[in-house]
Amino acid sequence: RRVAPAHRVSEPFIEGLCYGKKKHVVHNAALNYRTLLSVTNVLNSQRNRQSLFRAVTDQLAKVVRWERAGITVYDLKSDAFRFYAVETNLPKVVLRSDAMIPRAHSAVGWVYDHHQVHVRPHLQRERLFIEDESYLQEGLGRMINLPMVVQEACLGTLNIGSVEAGHPDPADVDFLQQVATQIGFAIAHVNAYEEISRLKEQL
User: What's the CA gap between 27 and 21, in Å, rounded?
Assistant: First the structure.
């Protein structure tokens, strides 16, 4: 019995595929760099907190799909996290900007304690932390929590939720971590400025 010869793929065809893939990767890296630069410029601009974060999330949308984006900052006195800013385009919002999330048993608390990213790719199947039920009720399929670490101290978290489920692209997570770090530096700068102003008033 004769076996049909395997179809041979030409070297130019393979080279073309490799070139196209490399070109796509380079394009994405360039887009991430430009977006990160835009985020940094926004954070250095003089705007109020909510409009500033809205401008940041507008930049994020160029790289990563999101339906809910928020910043939580740790409050030592209450051992909980308060929302520094929230942006959402979901019709239903359960976890509102005035909510406080306790450090214990929460995703933001875990990220704060471990200084590591935490991803829940399938909120419909598995809810590990106390916030996850609220996110599910809002219609989210995935949540990414990223630490805002400045000089080895975690100030809080950047939280990016999507109605899409599944594991995010590792390159997108790396990009979001860079954004979280930039936001952390901006918040630390604001905190230092407010502390200096408070001390001046006491003189």
Answer: 10
Pairwise CA distance, residues 39 & 146, whole Å: 16
φ, ψ for residue 46, nearest 5 deg: -95, 95
Q: How far apart are CA 63 and CA 168, in angstroms?
A: 12
DSSP string covering 133-159:
HHHHHHT-SEEEEEEEEETTEEEEEEE
Cα(135)–Cα(161) distance, integer angstroms: 8
- The span from the CA of 176 to the CA of 180, in Å, is 6
Model pTM score = 0.74
Cβ pair 67, 165 in contact under 8 A: no
| Residue bearing tokens 């971590």 | 177
The whole-angstrom separation of Cα 71 and Cα 39 is 15
pLDDT digits (tens, 9 = 90+) for 176-189: 998 898 888 888 77
